[in-house]
Amino acid sequence: MTRLDPLTSWHADWRGLRVAVLGLGVTGFSVADTLAELGADVLVVTERAEEEYARLLPVIGVALHTGPLDTVPAELRAHDPEVIIASPGFAPTHPVIAWATEAGVPLWGDIELAWRVRDKVLRADGTPADWILITGTNGKTTTTQLTATMLREGGLRAAPCGNIGVPVLDAVRDPAGFDALVVEVSSHQLWYLGLTQHADAQVSPLASVCLNLAADHLEWHGSFEAYRDAKALVYRNTRVACVYNKADDATRRMVEDADVVEGARAVGFDLGVPGPSDLGVIEGILVDRAFLEERRTSALEITTVAELAEAGLSAPHVVANILAASALARAAGVEPADIRAALRAFRLDAHRIEIVAVADGITWVDDSKATNPHAAASSLTAFPGAIWVVGGLLKGVDISELVASRGPGAKAVVVIGVDRDPITAAFARHAPDVPLFEVDHAETEDVMARVVELALEVARDGDVVLLAPAAASFDQFSSYADRGRSFARAVQDQIGRDHGGEYDTDPTGPRA
Fold this sequence. Notes:
By secondary structure, the chain is an alpha/beta fold. It has helices spanning 26-38, 51-59, 74-79, 95-103, 110-116, 140-153, 168-172, 187-193, 218-221, 224-232, 249-257, 305-310, 316-331, 336-345, 373-382, 400-406, 420-430, 447-458, 480-499; strands at residues 18-22, 41-46, 63-66, 83-86, 107-108, 130-135, 158-162, 180-184, 207-210, 241-245, 265-269, 278-282, 285-288, 300-304, 354-359, 362-366, 387-390, 412-415, 436-438, 464-467.
């Protein structure tokens, strides 16, 4: 038995445990703060630290080292950590991670630490909150928000957390306590969970889902196979329901291969007619044929596509996310009527197929959150024939398949970003007749203003101009949100000049 094995409770003896925390973003600080509260001896190692965090660490009794991490700092070696807890940005090939692996120092992520101390605040029955895990290449955040909203409508105290922006450790330590934590987990966080060998430290969720799988983050994982294997860990030790996408065979195979708790069920979803144990759509009605006794002969109505359209939620990939969230909520005992009520009030976050303006019959749509080809494909399916604004930082992902499948259907394309050459080459091969414009940010002070000008050269009444970049934003913008805001601002500035500021920006207007 090692010093770490008994540390599977908030009430275990963590005092004096030498821990190194890698990274000092919101996740790294939550880890350091938790460990300080537990009485551990903590050193945070990071290349740079925000002023607020750097000021707070000594207050809570945590040491800090900042500087380059291309080699292992002497301070880290001197600390002689008994465990290293890494923020998700640290890839397996990072020099510090490679050193820890070679030296035999155990590696945890924040999710494992949170699971170990999840009993800090208990429910009325004396048990910790249930966990629901959500991953996938796309749709994670929306599905996490949807699921938490449905659970709350069903009377449960639920918190969306994890990769969604609120560290799971903050939710675990919230003195109010929760009945359920809906945890968005990235492939990076899941990779670290895969290192967990101690059975009592392995997450065992009530329900779990991998929404879809497409090439992404290959520069972090090293290969598509490694990325897939990390995603598949979301199903490990699931107790009630492994929810999978019937339209994505990779997720079905993940469930088939998963080591789950005996009695856990596989529950499928897609936009087609559902079989028993599935959720799907029948003649415009979203139905549940999984969580009822008469599922071989009956179905429970959840909502209708028409109702979802009124809330701006009827794009096909959004409907799929709703079905997945409904399956997770049903696994937790939420009634269909509560799910329907939750959906009536739910709205998508900004930069997710968000209509930013309608003028002269032209609809301008911001889906800046479509940061990879799979997400962009969903956007283009929702808005066929759009004028497509695409490009950015491709992160090593091949975009040619997306261009081959969706490019010929575009009315025109406006290419932005530093990785323009692979995109223009793909269009030359697969959609040479589609009008193509390039925006060189080195020659253009305001990228999105130029995008709008070019789009207006071809846009006519009834057209959609769709920002679905299929790439990361960090080449030109600080975030996908910054990119989306820049697009919306350029659109609204141009329309304001043309129409004296009068145009429709109703976010619940008609959507595909």
